[in-house]
Fold this protein.
Amino acid sequence: MTTILELQDVWKIYRMGDVEVEALKGLDFKARKGEFVAIMGPSGSGKSTAMNMIGCLDVPTRGRIFLEGKDIAHMSESQLARIRGKKIGFIFQQFNLINTLTALENVALPMIFQNTPKDKRLAKAKKLLEMVELDDRMHHKPTELSGGEQQRVAIARSLANDPEVILADEPTGNLDSKTGHTVMDFLRKLHEKEGRTIILVTHDENTARNADRVEFLKDGQIFKRHTR
Amino acid sequence: MNVDLFGYSLSNLAHRKMRSFLSILSILIGIMSIYALISFGMGLDAYVKGLAEEAGIDKLFVQAKGIGAPGTDENFFLTQDDADFIEKIRGTDQVAPLYMKAGEIAWKDEKKYRFAMGFDLENEGLVMETFAVDVAAGRQLRKGEADAVVLGYNYQFPLKIFKRKIAAGDTIELNGKELKVVGFYSEVGNPSDDANIYLPKEGFEELYPASKEKYGWMIVRAEKGTSADDLADRITERLRKHKGQEEGKEDFFVQTFEDALATFNAILGVLKGILIIIAFISVVVASVNIMNTMYTAVVERTKEIGIMKAVGAQNHTILLVFIFEAGFLGLAGGVLGVLFGWMVAAAGGGIAAAAGFALLKPVFPWYLTFGCIAFAFIIGALSGIFPAKQAAALKPVDSLRYE
């Protein structure tokens, strides 16, 4: 399998007053096309920082990040925004839907930034909402949806631009266990049926078990790997 | 920017109804004031321009110095000899001396004090042309008619001057003398001129015997091909010498019609300027209000901005979204401001006309309407630039963390 994403010796150092905090200390990570990888670690292990690097939401202090072979570690914010829009689909713990928009509009939003024509955009958003079994809720706003429904909308949104990588950050963290299972079922289906590359960031062992491979993060470094 | 993002912007404004409404209201008040004031100002300009066109640029006025309206200061006056002398000056076509005195006019059981004007009916054409009036009702005065008057426009209506209206054929009293009203002149547009009383020279001299051949002012028409300015200079110089007066100590002054209008325009310009500055200040306040609204929106929507950036929005897209929102607030305020400004100005014009100030008639040219709306949009968009820049500069990773 070809490598789709690779982090090489990535450091992230935050300056807080006079103190320097090393959130990542030479992180090496690799995800292959079609793989379901989980990054697991306790709070403070650097999970969120790692996710920000993988998702192009932040740039490292040092090191290199390759997405489809291209080094994106020191690109401008606008370049990163373009990459995020096309190549990465996000699923957040807090769902992060826009409350003034309906489920359908939320799913269609990433396609607006790629200048997809309106009819295609809406048709695809509808199809994605059908896939997550929310076709009867598509005109509802997030505040009118349950947590599980909101997360399914977020899953649909993450697929809007057919990204190379789906990055899920604690996707079940705000859900009860039953709803959490449903959401994970959807993610697994995406991986198994559609061959999507999924990177899951979690502190929960049960959630991480869905992945083919689990990388354990501690003090800003991978200290253990486990392949199923 | 994809046009669909406009829809997103509008939904945001709709979501924050009260704040959007207040921002729109603030710009509405400013634009309403500007629109109404400029429409009145333009109406006044049109009125003055119309006067100049009707009265013509070939006229000038010779006026006795003194305090108050011409002819009201007994110590200064122009004589028939002055008139005859001016008539002989090169470039003079015609001279119309005018009497002007305050008089007590009685109708039914009411008495009012207004200005009486007397002129030789031989000069009828020049006088009427200068006053920009014609006979609106009844007939014109006749030469030598000592017991007849023509009244200003407003006497025809009840409650404008007297409680009861006067009609052609009625008899009024002027300084105790009974005079027959033979007609009315058309509307000048200001309550003072529309309350004048006009008499033939002979009638005026009977009423004011002490003022015989003591004129308040004269209208002079320049010959074709002679500039009114040149003639004014010539009359000043010759008449001064004729009267044996020193330069700068003349007991008269000469002003062209254009000079008189220029003075009026200058005063009008200053007044308009002050009013429009006040209106502009209110627009500045409105723009600060929009800026404040937008800054608040940026803070409130920090997370939303992060989400948009995470799903692919570039900095310039965020910038445009916020500028558009601010511009739309301005645009909505502008459209409503123009609408309310039109209503206020039209109502104000109606009230002014009813009060006899027909010169205060607002005009609404299309470029004023579109100019005000475009101005409001630009002010709104400019007010949104700094908040929008702040929004665009937010780092996605920080914005997503914002609670």
User: Anything to note?
Assistant: The mean pLDDT of chain B is 89. Residues 59-223 of chain B form one domain. The two ends of chain B are 28 Å apart (CA to CA). The beta strands of chain B are 59-64, 92-107, 110-119, 135-138, 148-151, 171-174, 177-185, 197-200, 217-222, 252-256.
